[in-house]
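COURSE: Structural Biology Practicum
ASSIGNMENT: Worksheet 4, Part C
STUDENT ID: 0417
INSTRUCTIONS: Below are two proteins. For each, the amino acid sequence is given first, followed by its structure token string. Answer the questions at the end about the second protein only.

PROTEIN I
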Amino acid sequence: MAKLLLFTIFLFSLLHSFKAAPSNLVSDFCSTMGNPSACLSAIERDPKSATVSKYYDLAKMVVNLAITDSANSLEFIKSSKGKYDPKAIELCIGGFDYAVNSFRGALAEIDVDAQSASYDAAVATDGATTCLTAFKDAKINVPKEISIRVDNLQLYSILGNDAITHLE
């Protein structure tokens, strides 16, 4: 019985360790980016990336990933109050809040005005700039755990803008 259980656990973990390859559309899209591996890594967080075949679906997927990642980062930064300079953290929170709202606006506009949606995705990176500037002005190095989130925000802004641009 114990051997069967161990074998079952092994098979289950083996099957879940295989990740589906990205669709041709995702591979082609990411190959045009400055950092294709970062693009693939960001988009492959959604299992549908293995089957997406239309830019409309890719654009919505990327923007939804951007919203989720930025909202999670916002919550993380909010939980960092008291660890870092209070003014820098408040400005950083404001920057990420702006980015989340920009991505939400982009998602809402994809169906009605792709050009406006593309703009909203592009300007979401202003939230990252606000955060970086806040730490620079406080003469503090950006903490690594926040810097990673800023990098992700900037990446999703680029990806969202580029994916939506294919709809115009």
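PROTEIN II
(use this one for the questions)
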Amino acid sequence: MRLNLTTRLLKPTTRTQTQTPRPFRTYTSSSFQPQPRVNMSAPGIPSTTTPLQSQSQAGNQPQTHIPVSEQNQTQTSRMSTSTATTPGTGTGTGGFGVGNGSGKGSANDPATYGITSTDLKTAPGVELSPRQRVLVGSVLDLFKGLPTHKKMSLWTETATFSDPLTNSRGRKQYEAQWWGLKAAFSEIEQQHHLITSSSDPITLDLKTRYKVKGIGSEKVIVSVVRIFTEKGGEEGGEKIVGVEDRWYGRIPEGWLATALRNLNSVVVPAFVSVPKNDGEN
């Protein structure tokens, strides 16, 4: 009896457990609320992260359209702002051009007066202003026998010209001397020049070879030229009021020499014809 009970207690019992399936839970639209996500796509392009319903709702919202003309104006204003330049003194775009804008050229440009003597030699420490370079270049051209009315416009009406042969005063007399130089010599060679002073008067050393027309004789003259100027001329620039051509550094001052020089200044205009314009010979 005891053995039987023990065997029954030790005998394993097998129980069959049947798992009952759990019922399916139904979710409604009210219970399921997806978390909002950040839309990183560009406007007008569907996003891969935002629900289609929210995108369609956003697409149905009215959009503000900018007219094409206003867009062009906005782009133009941006371009003009980015490319704006500060006015300067140069010759490029946005700067102030060379000259006075009247088409007459600059008063400090040798080309305005047809000056050919532009390679000016100066002593050490001597500097010329642009206007002084124009005046000196024009005088060197006159000593080469190259007078023009444009160059003579750099002289005042009452200017003077003096050398050992003449003492000319006023435009009629000094213009005749310069055109007479051209008529009297067949060859004029400027062998040397050196500007030694830029103060008033401007001083330069000059060496010139002259060949007399018709005779053929030659003469080399070394002289010191002094150019006197005054301010208040054309466009506020300087003008020539006097030129002295001192042969070998001097001009005769005796009464006879002075009388002959004065006579020359009167006689030469009577025989030398000054052209009315630069187009005449």
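ANSWER KEY EXCERPT:
Q1: The chain has a mean pLDDT of 75.
Q2: The helical segments are 2-10, 52-59, 68-82, 130-143, 149-152, 171-184, 255-271.
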